[in-house]
Amino acid sequence: MRWATLNGELLPTAEEKERQKVGEAQQQVQQAQQRAERAESQLQLAVKNLLQSGMTVEQVANITGLSDSEIAALDI
To answer: Which of the 8 DSSP states describes residue 10?
Structure first.
């Protein structure tokens, strides 16, 4: 037996509500991962541009907050 509104629309069951919550949580995680990937890409581009403009690794590290080894690991 399922509950319905006066208009005849079926109300979601507890299982359906839980599946919807899980789906929404998965979507939020995916969006957060995409934002992190974009931020990483932007940081790599900024490091590349700073190095190409003639800055030293130490100067770029000071500006970006990355360590010298992190900048070297970016493989730019």
So the answer is: B
| Max Cα distance, the chain (Å) | 72
Residue 56 DSSP class: -
Tokens of 26: 């998965």
For the entire predicted model, the pTM comes to: 0.70
For residue 55, the SS3 value is coil
- pLDDT per position as a tens digit, 11-68: 999 999 999 999 999 999 999 999 999 999 999 999 999 999 999 999 999 999 999 9
Structure-block tokens of residue 46: 């900024």
The closest alpha carbon to 43, from 20, 22, 61, 17, belongs to: 61
